[in-house]
Amino acid sequence: MTRKRDREQTRQELLATARRQFARAGYDGTSVRDVAGAVGVDPALVFRYFGSKRGLFDEAMAAHTDAMIDAPLEQWPRELLGRLVFQDWEEYDGEHPLIVALRSIGSDDERDRLRDEICAAHIDKLADLAGDAKDKQLRAELFAAWMLGLGILRSAVRTPALAKAEQQDLQPHLEAVAEAIFGRPIPGPE
């Protein structure tokens, strides 16, 4: 007698396994068969739940961009510091999701999609911090690049000072950079 699977639990297991495998091998190096086999299900189930390998990848990677920051605009830099720099990314096998996404880019369409996701999730909102500045989009992209660079150096490269720094160690620097880029003070934690 075969055991009946819990659909949602199986879906979540497939997503968790896919995140780890995409993190290790990228999109091209991961197969639906590998993901399904690691969970102990038929590969056809992946297609039933996600439609395609691309659907599985998109949903697995969406975990880091779907949750928009629910905080007042002035707190966005601090919230991003926590998310982009200090999150441990255990669900991506310790890899920063941007590294996983970059490892998986194989076409201009995929690059454009990643850019659109990053802009929608973070950069467009950060641009509002620059108020009426004519170059507010540039300022937002500069700040985002700084934040992503911190996250990658801390989680992927593991540079010594950043790897051992705590959020409160970086907070004064975050506030100084945010004020320099956005042209106004950015409040720290309450």
TrEMBL record:
Protein name in the entry: TetR/AcrR family transcriptional regulator
Q: Is DNA-binding there in the keyword field?
A: yes
Q: Which UniProt keywords apply?
A: DNA-binding
Q: Which organism is it from?
A: Tenggerimyces flavus
Where do the HTH tetR-type domain residues begin and end?
A: 8-68
Q: Which domain of life is it from?
A: Bacteria
Q: Which InterPro entries match?
A: Homeodomain-like_sf, HTH-type_TetR-like_transc_reg, HTH_TetR, Tet_transcr_reg_TetR-rel_C_sf, TetR_C_16
Tell whether Transferase is among the UniProt keywords: no
Any matching Pfam family: TetR_C_16
Q: Which residues bind DNA?
A: 31-50
